[in-house]
Amino acid sequence: MQVIENLKVKEKLYKEKLDNGLTVMIIPKKGIQKKYIIWGTNYGSNDSVFVVPGENEATTVPNGVAHFLEHKLFEQENGTNSLDTLTSIGVEANAYTTNDHTAYLYECTDNFYEALDEFMDYVQHPYFTDENVEKEKGIIAQEIKMYDDDPGWNVSFNAIKAMYVNHPVRVDIAGSVESIYKITKEELYKCYNTFYNPGNMILFVVGDLDAEEVFECVRKSNHKDIERLQEEIVRFYPEEPKEVKQKEIVQKFPISMPMFSICFKDDKVNIKGEELLKYEVMTDILTDMLFKKGSLIYEDLYMKGLITPNFGAGFSSQIDYSYTSIGGESKDPRKVKEIIMNYIEKFKKEGLDKEAFERTKKKHIGNFIKYFDSVTFIANNFITYKFKGINLLDYVEVMKKVTFEEVTERLRQAYDDVILTTDIIVGFPNETDGE
């Protein structure tokens, strides 16, 4: 067992790699009532073309398989549903799929070890039949159609589709109605056996628990007959150009005020670990300085009545793609875009405020330390960052290394009009207008 102590956030991380390759990590939190466990696999919706370890040819599966697997894993051969079983013993269980990983989790105050047995069992025992796979297709199809009617989801996803030409991030995580109806139980088993190998997974636990007791229970419940992953899973992603696919998407929805998303596609990709973390925190600081409430851009837009208080901005980063998004509601989204671009040019010419940089940096460090009081924040972010080659405990140290000069240089590189895309959801009072 390896013990990693971080004095900045005053936490100890206990880590062990089991014989079959599963990485188990625990952060004990004395005095915290909630206990939280998350089991993630480095497999998401982007991974539709890959080579199964031991094979030579690439396998291609329909879009949406990772999400489909997440749905089906709760169903057991004896007819029970593990989600219901966990709920019945007083724990709140869930699962989710992202572009790069899938995770299963539960949180509770009591019955942690009783729930652990069921949790370890269902994640390691898939049960797919032609009948239950066919039934699930209708359920997921309804979920996809539900999102199609959500203007907030559409404005975000349309922006991604406008930015990316080839990258699978432009495909809905759930796939399409057409793609999910092509999924077979054989494909589900193939993807499960490839990506749910313990060597491709991480189990993370946080709460008022004894680390050695948790390790022992996980060892006993861990699948013993899975061959350890001996080589990295080869995944294929298409080459992505710097340019965006299209400058603007306009979609009509029956809403009272247009929604918009102004996005900047980042072309610095295929970095990981501390390099990626530093790039992320630099951009987070810059984004906060430019667009947070109280910034010059925000105050100007708000005083002119061009934005509502839900205006905001953020940076999304993964190993192979990243982008900045600025969004909200406005009666004139194109005017908002014009003002934002003018301000960006002004900052590029005149420079940033160094005092504002120092305040923003201190705020980010303080917020991060405060967030470590939340077991939910710790667990979910540990998994997310670990699959990017990052130890979350390094965040404060990396943030402290970021300099004003580096953020200034990041400003010069970012927000290039060549890689800008704008997505607008046009609202109108009723469905007969705006045709």
Mind explaining what this structure looks like?
This protein is an alpha+beta fold. Helices cover 41% and strands 20% of the residues. The protein is built from 15 helices and 15 strands. It has a seven-stranded mixed sheet with strand order 1-2-3-9-4-8-7, sandwiched between helices. A five-stranded mixed sheet has the order 11-15-12-14-13. Strands 6-5-10 form a three-stranded antiparallel sheet, with no helix packed on it. Helix 1 (65-72) packs across helix 7. It is globular, with a radius of gyration of 23 Å.
Oligomerization category of the chains in this entry? single chain
Shape by Cα distribution: globular
Distance N to C terminus: 65 Å
Mean pLDDT: 93
Brief account:
This protein has 435 residues and is α+β, with helices and mostly antiparallel strands. Helices cover 41% and strands 20% of the residues. It has a seven-stranded mixed β-sheet, sandwiched between helices. A five-stranded mixed β-sheet has the order 11-15-12-14-13.
